[in-house]
Every structure is written in C-alpha cells, then in structure tokens.
Amino acid sequence: MHQPFAQYQLRDIVGGILRQLELLVRLERHMLGIIASYAVAIGLFMLCVPIAVQELVSTFSFAVEPIMIFTLATIVGLALTGAASFRVLQARAVETLQQRIYTRIAIAFTDTLPRLQEESFLPQHANRFAEADLLTRALVAMVADLFNVAVVGSIGMGLLVFFHPYFLLYNVTLIAGFLVLLTVFGRGGFLITLEMSRLHYELYHWIQNIAANLPHLRAAGYSPYLLSRTDALTQAYVRVRQRRSDLLTGRQYKAATLWQAAGHAGMIATAGMLVSIGQLTVGQFAAAELIAGNLLLNMDTLARRMVHMFFAFVSFREMNAFFSLPQDRSGHKSVIPVDDFGLAGIRVSAKNVSFGYPDAPLLFEEVNVEVAPGEKVMMLCRTNTQKTALAKVLAGLMAPTAGAVLYNDVNLVEVDLRSVDSRRSLMLDSQPTLLEGTIEDNITLGRPSIRYEDVQWALQFVELDDEIDALPDGLSTPVTGHGGQFTLSQTLRLLLARAIVIRPYVLIVDGTFHSMVPSVREVILRRLCSKDEPWSIIFVSNDPTFAHAERRVVVG
C-alpha cells in the first residue's frame, strides 16, 4: 500500500498542513470562538433532555401525575427550541466563516501571483485556487460537527460520570475505540485522497491542454489520441477513488457501525448491572442510554465526516504547495525612495550577465551593456526565448544566474522592485494578453497616480484615441476573453499605452511590434525613439533589420 505513494514525504506534507491550519485558526479565532460558544449553548440545552427523561421515568415508577408530565414536556420543548435556535445561529456563523476564508484565499492568491518567480511558476499552479471552494465546502460539513461532538460529547460524558463513577471507564473505552477507528482502520486514507487530488489535477490540466489547442485539433479532424489519453487518466483516477471507498466505507465505516452496536450493548450491560445492585435508578438508566445513544450517533457522524476531513487536509496541502513557490523576496530588501533616482533619468548597466532556467543550459552569458539616460538601444538576440528572458532580466523581473543589472549603480537583486516600478516599464510583445475589466482598467491597473490626462496622452501616442472614441462606451468598454474583441495590433498598442502612461525613465521592449499595422508601427517607433522623449529605451529583438535605435548590441 505504501509503495504507490512513496513519492509523498508525509512529514513535510503534515508540516505544511499544520502551518496553514495554524494560520487559519489565528486569523479566524474570533469566528471559531463564536461557533464554539454556540456549541456550548447547544450542549447545555440538550442536557435538559436526559435530565427530563430521568425525572419522567422516576415519576412513572411511583405515580403518574399529569402536571409533572406537562411540566417536563414543556421544559424539554423549550430546551429543544433553544438548541434549535443556536443550531441556526451556528449554521449562519459557519456560512460567514466560509465566506471569510474564501475571500482571504482569493486575496492571498491575487497578492501572491505577481510576486512568484517566473522560473518556477507554471500556469497550472493557478488552478490550485479551485481549492478555495473545495476547502470551504469541506469545512462547512465538518466544523460545526467537530465542535458539537467535542462540546456536547464532553457534557454528556460528564453527566454519565455524575450518575456513577463506573461510567468513567465506559467513556475511556468509547473514546479509545473511536481513536482506533480513526487511526488504525482509517490508515492510508489521507495519502489515497492526496493521490486522488493529484490525478484530478492531471486530468484537469489535460482538459485545459485540449482547450488551448482547439484550432489545431479541429484542423486535424478525428483524433483518437484525445479519448484514449482521457480514458487512461480517468481510469487511474477511478481506481484510486475506488480504493479510497474500500478503505473509508468498506473498512473504517463498517468498523464504526460495529463499534456503535458494541457501545449500545455495553451501556445497557453496564447501566443494567448498576440498576440490579441498586447503584443506579431506573430513571438514570434511561437517561444514560439516551446520552450514550447521542454520543454514538455523534461519533458515527464524525466517522462519516472523515472523507471531508481528508478533503480539507488535501486542500490545505495543495494551497501550501502554491504558496511555497519561490517568490521575489521584496519584503526583505531595502526600498529606495523614488525621488532618489533624481530627474536626470536612469543609467542601465548590465555587467557580465548570464541567465538560464533551472536544470537547463544558459540562454545567454557574459552580456555587457550600458545605456545612458535618454539613449535608445537595440539588443539583437538569436531566439525568441533568449530575447524575452533578457528583457525580463534587464527589467528586474528575473534575477540573473550570474552578473548584475544596475540602475544608477543600484543592483536590482538587492532592492525591492517597488523602488523602480514607477520609473521602469516593460512591454512584452511576445505575450499580447489583456485583463478582464475595461480599457481604462487595463491601462491604469488602478494605480492612483495616473490621471485621466495621462491616459489620453498615452492613447494618442499609440494612435488609439480615435478608435476608442468611436466605441460606444469609450474607455469604459469591457475587455473580455483576454481581449479577444481587439485585433492583435490594438492589443499591442494598449499594452504599450500601459507601459508609457507613467512616463517611465526606462522602457524595455521585448520585440519590435511586427504584429502591428505597418504604417502605425512606423509612426509609433519614430515617436518612441524621438530625441524629444527623455526616456531610455532598450529594444530586445531578434530582428536584424530594425534601424530605429541609435546603436545595436549583439547578444552572443
């Protein structure tokens, strides 16, 4: 059983889960305290039921007095109504907890994604956000039950011991048996659920892969490979899921039902023996059996919730894997005030810069260049991969494998990127995608320092002002589907408008806009490279015919 899951380092996984759980408890301790307090109230109200049953049976043993029956029935009714009221409040509190957790996860993902190191990030890592919904579903199924079982069970067990000390042994035996059910009979359930999650995401990624290749697949016609691979992945998932069902339902839950029967029989035997020797009244016998039945029912519920507990733990693990990805350690670097760059521009220096992705050969090495403030330079690369990587390294988005990139003699790996974000822009010709929102949102990105006049200037610069004015909603026009309603030329110009709207000191461009309409491209390139514009521009391209820059640097 252990061999198929030997790839999982259980100690590291459990450590990560505990860290996420500790963070959740710390952030939501107030809501968890409210849910726990409701559980205490429910337990106290439910305590009235066995006490009333005890008194009612004792009354029947001597004489039937209607007023006593009516009084006890009224008390029980009021107690159950009170318990029901707190159950409703508890359910609403759990729903609020769900909403808060979901919101926290969404904000954490949004905050973390832009800071992940690109070398270690894959698009499928973002799929882990699906765990936000799965986690909250699992929590709503188990949080209230866990509190209720713990609190109501403790109150019930305390009442049993109050009836007779012998019930302490019964309580210990009951708890020990239940722990055996969880640990021994449920052993392996978590790892199986973890493997199930891995196979689910593998299939999920495969479906996304199909969606990303739709034009090619439609052109190819009938493709048996798609169904055969999907069938293989689905069969692997179903086999593991069946294995989990055999464990949790066929073994653990079966043992739980047998233990429940043994618990009932043990209570009847223990309480009956105490009644026979005069250590327990008939009323206490009835109350004890009622309490034991409720305890066993709660434990049965908890046993059935084990699958949700495993789902919650797996969700914690998947999200921990996402949040453990390497990030730009900006919080541990110094922040240079923007004013320290002065008004004379930024001098960009690359000294013996080399870069390669992990476990891959270097894309470029020993790159040396110095770009003075206001200078327009073109760096000629061999491949698209090389030029995009070099542009990101020069912008500080990726750290060089060797060497250093300096802005005004400040090494970018030593400072928080927020120090240069308002003075440096990067435009990626190779990734022409837009965000969902409006045209204005895509240009400003919500940056408060950008004024309406800045947006208008940027749109005029990239020859988009008339086209956007012609739209019914103008700047408020919705952008959907990564900007699919715009031509590639328009998308590139919107991205360029975003890059120049802050009037950067340094503009780094990956590519030379060959996907733009040629006449518009020439106008924009002349404007970008005009001596009237004070910014420095570094075009990183593999186009040897590009002639707009003042000088060219060949990257080996």
Structural description of this entry:
This protein is of the alpha/beta class. The protein folds into two domains: 12-323, ABC transporter transmembrane region fold; 335-554, P-loop containing nucleotide triphosphate hydrolases (Rossmann fold, 3-Layer(aba) Sandwich). The protein is 60% helix and 10% strand. It has helices at residues 10-27, 29-62, 66-112, 130-163, 166-185, 189-212, 214-220, 224-276, 282-304, 306-323, 384-395, 439-444, 452-461, 465-469, 488-500, 518-528; strands at residues 348-355, 364-371, 376-380, 402-407, 410-411, 424-428, 437-438, 478-479, 506-510, 536-541, 551-554. A five-stranded parallel beta sheet has the order 6-9-10-3-11, sandwiched between helices. Helix 2 packs antiparallel against helix 3, helix 5 runs antiparallel to helix 8 and helix 8 (224-276) packs antiparallel against helix 9 (282-304). It starts with 9 loop residues before the first helix and ends with a strand. The model has no long low-confidence stretch (mean pLDDT 85).
Q: Estimate the global geometry from the Cα principal axes.
A: elongated
Q: How many alpha or pi helices?
A: 16
Amount of helix:
55-70%
Task: Name the structural class.
Answer: alpha/beta
The low-confidence parts are none
CATH level-4 homologous superfamily of the largest domain? ABC transporter type 1, transmembrane domain
> Largest beta sheet, briefly?
5 strands, parallel
What CATH architecture of the largest domain do you see?
A: Up-down Bundle
Radius of gyration: 34 Å
The end-to-end distance, rounded to whole angstroms, is: 53 Å
What is the fold-level CATH name, i.e. the topology of the largest domain?
ABC transporter transmembrane region fold
Strand content: 5-15%
Could you tell me the mean pLDDT?
Answer: 85
CATH class descriptor name of the largest domain: Mainly Alpha
GO molecular function, one term: ATP binding
Domain ABC transmembrane type-1: 39-304
GO cellular component, one term: plasma membrane
Enzyme class: hydrolase
